[in-house]
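Our collaborator T.R. sent over the components below with a one-line note: 'Predict the complex.' Nothing else. No constraints on interfaces, no templates requested, no preferences about which chain binds where. So this is a plain run: every listed entity goes in together, and whatever single assembly comes back becomes the starting point for the next discussion.
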Amino acid sequence: MSMTAELISVGTELLLGNIVNTNAAFLAQECAKLGLSVYYQTTVGDNPGRLKAAVEQALERSDVVILSGGLGPTQDDLTKEITAEAFGMKLVEDDHTRERIQAYFDARGTKKIAENNWKQAMVPEGAVVVDNDNGTAPGLILEKDGKTAILLPGPPGELIPMFQKDIFPWLHQRQPETIVSEMVKLCGIGESSAEMMIADLIAAQSNPTIATYAKTGEVHLRVTARAEDEESAKRMMAPVLKELKVRFGNHIYTMDEHVSLEDAVVGLLQEQGLTVTTVESCTGGLIAGRLVNVPGVSEVFKQGFVTYSNKAKRKLVGVKKTTLREFGAVSDKTAREMARGAVLVTGADAAVAVTGIAGPDGGTEEKPVGLVYIAAAVRGQTYVQECHFTGNRAKIRESTVAAALTLLRRAVLETAGN
Amino acid sequence: MSMTAELISVGTELLLGNIVNTNAAFLAQECAKLGLSVYYQTTVGDNPGRLKAAVEQALERSDVVILSGGLGPTQDDLTKEITAEAFGMKLVEDDHTRERIQAYFDARGTKKIAENNWKQAMVPEGAVVVDNDNGTAPGLILEKDGKTAILLPGPPGELIPMFQKDIFPWLHQRQPETIVSEMVKLCGIGESSAEMMIADLIAAQSNPTIATYAKTGEVHLRVTARAEDEESAKRMMAPVLKELKVRFGNHIYTMDEHVSLEDAVVGLLQEQGLTVTTVESCTGGLIAGRLVNVPGVSEVFKQGFVTYSNKAKRKLVGVKKTTLREFGAVSDKTAREMARGAVLVTGADAAVAVTGIAGPDGGTEEKPVGLVYIAAAVRGQTYVQECHFTGNRAKIRESTVAAALTLLRRAVLETAGN
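Returned assembly:
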């Protein structure tokens, strides 16, 4: 029987729908990685009675309760006070935290620290105090009678690094089993095709398990193994990872959880010493925008074009007037000329170009909304792909960006021997 | 005393953190608009025992329980069965829904409908059946002894339109009071400044109320009034809206909830008959990408440049070599030349340009990460703004995009008399 965890998010802004609860998704995913079973997630406001009831109910039914939010300096912030009460602990001042709060404000040149900030230096007696490197409220771990409460600051910029640095290892050590998990990220294949290709593995699985997650234009597979120690878990996982490699081949763009599709594409270009340029119509800069997500992209990406009008397609990258007239802006031939033209104009080694109809207007029976042509020109070869995407304007554009990165990657890989 | 509502999200994918619970934020915001007080949000999996307990607890403490997810065709989908049981209703086949399911598959050319789909035509006896225009599982409204359960399909593409079309009006009618709410969206002002400017209004408020929401580079104010009828509510709201207009003036880019900053900027350009071009360094295409979010943008936006390297800044938009050498790529002067050069090169009426250091590397003491220069050239005048953003690479870039749209808007407004 694995340990159970439960999440309680505290905050009126969540109850009002002002913000989306991304913390809950993050914490749930981390718990899954740790092998903790999460059966409940609750959101409550800053109301003492309701918060107290939620904490007590959670402690009754779960081993570990992770609370986020309500640790700040204001009177409304009650998470610590109420959890300490549930554990029968009184609050005492923590010198170390007091010093850290002072240092935090000193570093920011704050002359006069508002009095209420010192409330954050009060901690439940006996609790583990977890330093907050990005804010003033420390994290706290309370334990009693086999029950654990973990209190985290609400802002994701504080919660996520704190969890990764200190809470994850702490929980990992307390787990009776070791959980090892690896992410296999695929592009250029749909979720249902991917699932079909490993239906036999999924049907037969118990340990390790394979879970599939669909992202726009991508499928992620998380492989998780449980064992007595890390080495055994890794040994159990190895044949599954090997089998996935055999089945998905070049669809796998990374086996590193922290690597995104644009990271992989930029890495591949760097590896092969290629520069790339972009020519975008319906995506209007979003492909370049994703490449520029990657720090250090300047080595491979120098410039890009947004050619939204026909005239811009002609002037900036030399698409022929006759091509536009005979085949239209949204055509195989235009996409091809956009990519090839960009290589000529910029002197880049590669180019990726897209032209399509993102809607909601502009579709015809012959060329419906969602029709997109993508071209990738690399080392003298041009790959063109016709795509039919569904969804609203934003979704079609997002799908186009992912497909463009995927086609560029494929073109680079397939021409690598040339 | 206003009616209370409670949200229950059903789905293992939420408990595992595979997806972020955007439905909860959407529903919470709609409830706030309706004047329903939401004190609890719970997420549970497809486990019958735990789901039943959650439904019973919610019905005990809240007037309206809104459940989402678990209405599909599979055996795991139990929300309807368990809620019907809690209301003491048996399931009966609904002919109308059966016909709609048939029509749904017919429209998609499905020859053989999987048998389990018909489970979705079974509805609790006496429940209101709400048509699903985007899927096969209908929504359901169950009422008994002053308690209401509303069951919605989980996919946001089904839940959101169903809620807006049928559930919102249904709840609105049942509210003893009428709630009217308006959104006032601001740009070019920070949240704390905005709050300070209306601190007196917020301190004195009871009805109407003003709630502030911070977005990247924007602040949204929701003004909500409750009254016996819509006309009275609107009458109560009018002086508050008028006062906000006086205080925030041109910072208000729209008073329409459905209008985004890019919508407003594109609308303004259309109104004034101006075309615009973009020149982007650190944002790498994201400003153009946001403009292209707007359907019909082709009237004002024809082309844009991503000039990531110094050479691209020189070649594509004619930034001077001496400027780059003497002042650097990240400088007031470079931003200015990028914008002016783009106007010259493209013949557009306006240009917006950005150059900055998005990090994590590349910062120096003199030019730290987060330093960004934004220039907007309109009708012969050039506005330049020096910004210092905080956060990670993505956050700095996102803030830059919002600030660039804001500066462009300001430049267009301020030069309008020329």
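Summary for T.R.: The first strand of chain A starts at residue 4 and ends at 10.
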